[in-house]
Amino acid sequence: MPTALTLKNIPDEIYELLKASAESNRRSLNSEAIVCLESALLPKRITVSDRLARARALRAALADRRFQAKDISAYKAEGRQ
Fold it and tell me: What is the pLDDT of residues 36-77, one digit of tens each?
């Protein structure tokens, strides 16, 4: 069963942005707030084809580079600092 939520002390600027967004999407303030919360909090679904396209683009961007094991280890260590 859905739960009710009351928001207090919403900054005027945020309220106006939410109101304008609700109007442009032809939704109530409540529905717009739920959509905003869902988009911020629920995991983003990535299609298999999008994931493959990203992997292929990354592979293509790195195609002209040659990495050796020692270089990879150094990059890993650098990223952990």
Answer: 999 999 988 889 999 999 999 998 998 888 888 888 888 888
Measure CA of the first residue to CA of the last residue in the chain; give whole Å: 46
State how far the alpha carbon of 25 is from the alpha carbons of 29, 41, 45, 51, 66, in Å: 10, 20, 22, 29, 49
The CB-based long-range contact list for 9-14 (8 Å cut-off, 24+ gap) reads none
Distance, CA of 48 to CA of 54 (rounded, Å): 10
Handedness of CA 23, 24, 25, 29 (dihedral sign): negative
